[in-house]
Amino acid sequence: MRKLLLFLLVTSALTVKAQDEKTDLDIINKIIKEGTANSQIMDIAFHLTDVSGPRLTNSPGYFRAANYAVTQLKKWGADKAGLEAWGDFGQGWQLKKSYIAMTAPYYKPIMAFPKTWTQSTKGLVKADVVVINVKDSTELAQYKGKLAGKVVLVNRVDEYKHSFKPDANRYTDDELKKMADFKPNPQPQGPGGNQQNFARFGAAQRLNTLIKQMITEEGAAAYLTSSPASHDGTIFVQGPAGNRVDFTNGKPSVLEIAVSFEDIKTINRLVNMGTTVSLDLDVQSEFTGSDVKGYNVIGEIKGTDPKLKDEVVMLGAHLDSWQGSTGATDNASGCAVMLEVMRIFKTLNLQPKRTIRIALWSGEEQGLLGSRGWIKNNVGDRVTKDVKPEQGKISAYYNIDNGTGKIRGVYLEGNSAVQPIFAKWLEPFHSVGASTLTLQNTGGTDHISFNELGIPGFQFIQDEIEYDTRTHHTTMDSYDHLVPDDLKQMATIVATFVYNTAQRAEKLPRKEMPKPAPVRQ
């Protein structure tokens, strides 16, 4: 840690400029020192993961984590810290028990995890396995009347592929240079070769929907699924196929179970060779709570400048996770970073000119529901682009949601006007690998909700570590996969960006407001 601290500290006392851009290097040094020498980030992460448990939206684990975050924000002296409803989500859900084993032709524990919002078994259930082997929906009729009380899986033709790449990696200089050299394509893309892939994917999805419907109507005991990525002890597990709104409002899915690739292929081969495969299943879960509202965690540090205090700099991360583990890299890491930023601000008694607002979102895993709900309530309509006064007050939103890897730079989301500004802000962090700016967009997380209404929203470039190979939406996403020094680096960079944004004479430059969605005739 001492080496990291000495490496980070900025020795120059000179101000840096980009179009009259100024930064306070004395404050930046204090942020770096507090965020490294006195970091509390791993303790925060421990409470969000091991102590809270899985954080599916509206589950007991989610509220344990949310209430912890509110308590800490209040303890540090943040203003307006609390839970804020964003709209309807549905009931919470939690797993109470899971036992799955093959009992014939021999005993074998099955590595598996029930998907979210699925039904329980009625105690211990013993059932044989049926493999559905069809090319299209016209062949499904042969299974009618044969699935009641059975465990069902769809025939697997994919094969295990050995990987000779490391599970964990960091960006190389060449990869970062390619990102920095990226040039947006101003021309809209026309039809391409991917249309056939999309068509095949759509046909497969429609067939899977019909299979799931038949399994449900026939009264199957369970539905087994897998992915080639669920290998070597890691299981990728999310929600079941179907309508999440139905599942969280009193219509749970048939019991759907994610199984390791090795185990599902073993079962598949045995059944296809004519062997009777029997399973024991005892899965117990429950829907929780009567309040169907979804809640975000919100807290503030009030601005001090009489002219700028009503303007806002926002930072955030999604607090919810899937059920398969405790969501350490997705996204307790991001939440711990943002909470640590708030702690650093209050510990150093920083006096931001603009108000700082933290938001820890729920419902992100189901489609950015918490951030989009907050935007709708406070900022405007993402479809019509009708906006409220708050839209003009938010200078920027900074998001973390790419795992535990340290920051290597920023995705600018096509906002070239901020490039020289951010380049100067990153200068103190070149020595720890953060120097890349790319005009590329990156999707799938909550900064999108802000960009949709013309507010500069940014996601940081992060080293992948094991995010895509081992932890993202898997049973392995636990505290042990966090990298402490990387999280500390992230907190100091985010704190610096938030502080610099709060102190600027002007809000950050904006792109043109996106156009409203076309009205369908």
UniProtKB/TrEMBL annotation:
Transmembrane segments: none annotated. GO terms for cellular component: extracellular region; lysosome. Its main location: endoplasmic reticulum. Keywords: Carboxypeptidase, Endoplasmic reticulum, Glycoprotein, Golgi apparatus, Hydrolase, Lysosome, Metal-binding, Metalloprotease, Protease, Secreted, Signal, Zinc, Zymogen. GO terms for molecular function: carboxypeptidase activity; metal ion binding; metallodipeptidase activity. Residues 296-498 form the Peptidase M28 domain. It is found in: Endoplasmic reticulum; Golgi apparatus; Lysosome; Secreted. This is Carboxypeptidase Q. It comes from Lacibacter sediminis.
